[in-house]
Amino acid sequence: MRFFHLSDLHIGKQLHHYSLKEDQEHILGEIIEYAGKLHPDAVVIAGDIYDKPVPSAEAVTLFDDFLTRLAKIRPQIPVMIISGNHDSADRLRYAAGILKKEKIYLAGSVPQKEEEHIEKVALKDEWGEVNFFLLPFLKPAYVRRLFEENPPETYSDALNRLIKRENINFKDERNVLVSHQFYMGSYLPETCDSETISIGGLDQIDITGVEPFDYVALGHLHGKQKVKDEHIRYCGTPLKYSVSEASHTKALTVVTLGEKGKSVKIEEYPLHPLRDVRKITGKLKEILKEERSPEDYVSITLTDETDPYHPKEQLETVFSKILEVRIDNTRTRTKWMEAEELVLKTPEENFADFFEKMQGRTMDPEEETLILQILEEAKEAE
User: Fold this and answer.
1) Which is nearest to 273 in space by CA: 296, 255, 294, 290?
2) Close Cβ partners of 324 (under 8 Å, ≥ 6 residues apart)
3) How many helices (H) and strands (E) does the chain have?
4) What DSSP string runs through 216-268?
């Protein structure tokens, strides 16, 4: 069983004030070309199809064109899609019943009633069935009605209970989980500026509950990486969506599952963006001589000791898409060191300071856990 693992398309996203429509159109077209050449048994998209819960008509049209072109490939390739934290579950699963007839499977929401289950799509190959479990982005609050007598309090608990109630045959059958969450193993995975971690790390999920799956296709983090084991992976975004991703090498992840018990095979096929996202550091005169890709999105840091005359205006004669211009020299570093340090604290740290002033003591572990839960519930209610 060979399938594409995609995630975090973020269709409709802007990079600073620049529209990425043309860039996204180009990269989705390259993925279509790979699908036509490699003809995978399935295409999996692990959430964050759109950049906003209410995507623009332009964004919807772009994704519709992508699915339409995929559907035209013969023999037809099944496409499995889950919603991410940027998506609207209801909007994403619109017309899901009709699309299922075209082998396009949309999972917008997690189970919330006793009769509901994680959507399962079973495909066959020479070794039998492969079960794909489509689990959209979840928060503990989403499944409280399902476990009314003892509601889950953590993300890990919510996910583990959902998986347990499916009675999955891990011993004899091959199973793939498609999920959009923040998973961690023995260490925190690599993140970037465009990703947000919840208060106190409460949205982190331990991978222990998903390790029995033969492959775990993850979305949410923008850098491609494994989480402890090779078969638990973030495929990353197809494009660079922030300056902090400038060093990333984007690729199409292709997964091959053999017979039960055999190691999963991971291949990466290069993606070629219309424009790159780059960081450039140096003196103005040196940078102005650069001839490489003037259409790229660039973050520029000038190291001139004397302030250049109208630097941005000069740079705009060479680069058409400047994201930011920074100055880093002796003067700016001295100013930074002399400036009064601004300490930014998290909400729980601010409350801990307040508690200590009011009570004359620090919070005990039970009180710390309670305030973390209250702050997380407040965030969910926003």
Assistant:
1) 296
2) 16, 243, 299, 300
3) 10, 19
4) EEEES-SS-EEESEEEEEE---SS--SGGGTT---EEEEEE--STTSPPEEEE
| 104: phi then psi, degrees, rounded to nearest 5 | -110, 115
Secondary structure letter of residue 171 according to DSSP? T
291 half-sphere exposure, CB direction, 13 A CA radius: 0
Query: Among candidates 230, 223, 226, 212, which has minimal Cα distance to 245?
Result: 223
Nearest to 181 by CA among 206, 212, 199: 206
For 44, 148, 170, 232, the CA distances from 166, given in Å and listed in that order, are 20, 18, 11, 20
The tens digit of pLDDT for each residue in 173-228 reads 999 999 999 998 766 677 776 665 554 466 889 999 999 999 999 999 999 999 98
Q: Which of 82, 196, 194 is nearest to 138 (CA)?
A: 82
Q: Give just the sign of the alpha carbon dihedral 35, 45, 268, 175.
A: negative
User: What is the 8-class DSSP label of residue 305?
Assistant: S
Angle between helices 57-71 and 21-38 (to 10 degrees): 10
Higher pLDDT, 253 or 108: 253
- Rounded Cα distance between 315 and 127, Å, is 59
Distance CA 375, CA 350 (A): 12
Distance CA 190, CA 182 (A): 11
Cα–Cα distance for residue pair 351/326, rounded to 1 Å:
35
CB-CB neighbours of 173 under 10 Å:
14
**The pTM of the whole model exceeds 0.70:** yes
Question: What's the CA gap between 242 and 94, in Å, rounded?
Answer: 30
Which of 229, 247, 249, 245 minimizes the C-alpha distance to 184?
229
How do 251-256 and 2-6 pair as beta strands?
antiparallel
Cα–Cα separations (whole angstroms), residue 130 to 74, 123, 124, 258, 305: 21, 5, 6, 10, 62
Cα–Cα distance measured from residue 89 to residue 76, given in angstroms and rounded to the nearest whole number: 26
- Residue of 232, 225, 129 lying closest to 179 (CA atoms): 232
pLDDT, residue 372, reads 80
Instruction: Please report which helix (H) or strand (E) contains residue 297, including its range.
Output: strand 297-302
